[in-house]
Amino acid sequence: MDAALLSPDLSDRIAGLSWADIARELDAHGCAILPQLLPEAACGAVANWYDEPARFRSTVVMGRHGFGRGEYRYFAYPLPDPVAELRTALYPPLAQIANRWNGELGLPVRYPETHGDFLARCHAAGQARPTPLLLRYGVGDYNCLHQDLYGEHVFPLQVAILLSEPGRDFEGGEFVLTEQRPRMQSRVEVAPLRQGDAVIFPVSHRPIAGARGVYRVNLRHGVSRLRAGLRHTLGVIFHDAA
User: Fold this and answer.
1) d(CA 178, CA 88)
2) What superkingdom does the record give (predicted)?
């Protein structure tokens, strides 16, 4: 049933994207948008999972922890087929970008070619709890700027897919990315997402070429205050949690 939510050629479509252009967007702006990664029907079906608690291992009420306002739920293993397929298909091209970034920053960590091999690395280190999540925001809800770090092994890129349609389902609730540059003021990027669009962005840092060579900048992401309606997002994180 879940597998039918995605088109049968999703993995092929992801592999066939212009990853050179996507890499250039990430290098230049710190994020890249994949338009209409999920069709409208799939977005609605995935959003409705939020009301099926058996799919999830835990629920976080953001206000209780100072994270903002709203809720999110972490999926349990085994992941629903669409979520597992997105993780598996998106990882290989992102691993190439991640390995290049680490090389530019002089970091020794290299990521294997397949997501299964990377998960094996996480699980061997005790990071075995799944991290893909479903987020729900109502009126007045927001997500403070943060980084999704769950243990020693961190994959440096992640993906968020907007499941609701701005202007129809909700108002406000923009995806925000901030970049803290050394000895400079922070830079803000707002991703103009529509329903089904995915945004790729760094978990915590990325390289930037400067006058004196490549240097590292830290990033945080969040969601601005929702002014009306209901907003759902699917978060695809590639490392598991301790």
Assistant:
1) 28
2) Bacteria
**Is position 1 within any domain?**
no
Write the CATH number for 228. 2.60.120.620
Contact 188, 178 (CB under 8 A): yes
- Which domain, by its residues, includes 14? 7-236
Interval 109-159: pLDDT, tens: 999 999 999 999 999 999 999 999 999 999 999 999 999 999 999 999 999
Candidates 121, 64, 115, 63; CA nearest to 89 is: 115
Model pTM?
Answer: 0.95
Q: Determine how β-strand 226-229 pairs with β-strand 231-236.
A: unpaired
Number of domains forming the structure of the chain: 1
Q: Give the C-alpha separation, 75 to 241, whole Å.
A: 12
Identity at 166, one-letter amino acid code? P
Alpha carbon separation from 102 to 157, 169, 177, 204 (Å, rounded)? 12, 39, 21, 13
Please name which of 209, 197, 229, 96 lies closest in space to residue 156, comparing C-alpha atoms. 96
Tens of pLDDT, residue by residue over 28-66, are 999 999 999 999 999 999 999 999 999 999 999 999 999
